Amino acid sequence: MSHTCKAALVRCMDFRLDPELTDYVRAQNLLHDIDVISIAGAAKNIVDDPQGFVMTQIGLSVKLHEITEVHLMHHSDCGAYGGSRMFASLEEEKAMHIEQMQKAKEVISTSYPSLTVLMFFAVIGENDRITCVEPV
Ligand SMILES: [Zn+2]
């Protein structure tokens, strides 16, 4: 008996991402079609340890569920990167997260060339809720 899904989502564990992140997954028509890998800093673990926990999880997702996509989701004010106070502006913060996700994408693509890697950045507003999620 096999069961497959389309994608794996690498997201931060931060509670402030929900329920809006789940709403976003639903809007992408991926609810019940995506493995969720939740860890502080999301793709940070891939950059810091290319043979580590998250890459192992992605490998299992490929092997067990035959995924074809990996979605990397980073967010503003991420504690794993020291939070927004470490950056002069949201643009600077976003640029650093995009750079991190691009490095992670290279690691994933090297190990799994057939996977499509998509990157997203969520902005957390002053009310501790996601105000927007955008592809990058
Ligand atoms: Zn975070």
List the helices and strands and how they pair.
Elements lengths: L6 E5 L8 H8 L6 E5 L5 H5 L4 H13 L3 E7 L14 H22 L4 E9 L5 E6 L1
Parallel strand pairs: 1-2, 1-3, 3-4
Antiparallel strand pairs: 4-5
This protein binds zinc ion.
Q: How many E strands?
A: 5
Integer count of domains: 1
The main sheet comes to: 5 strands, mixed
Looking across the biggest beta sheet, what order are the strands in? 2-1-3-4-5
Strand content: 15-25%
Amino-to-carboxy terminus distance: 37 Å
Low-pLDDT ranges: none
Which class do the helix and strand fractions yield? Answer: alpha/beta
Please work out how many helical segments DSSP would assign.
Answer: 4
Instruction: Provide the gyration radius in Å.
Output: 14 Å
CATH architecture term: 3-Layer(aba) Sandwich
CATH superfamily: Carbonic anhydrase
**How much helix is in the residues?**
25-40%
CATH uppermost class: Alpha Beta
Q: Average pLDDT value?
A: 96
Hetero ligands: zinc ion
| CATH level-3 fold name | Beta-carbonic Anhydrase, Chain A
The coarse silhouette is globular
The string of secondary-structure elements, in order, is: EHEHHEHEE
Pfam families: Pro_CA_2
Protein name: Carbonic anhydrase
GO molecular function: carbonate dehydratase activity; zinc ion binding
Organism: Candidatus Uhrbacteria bacterium GW2011_GWF2_46_218
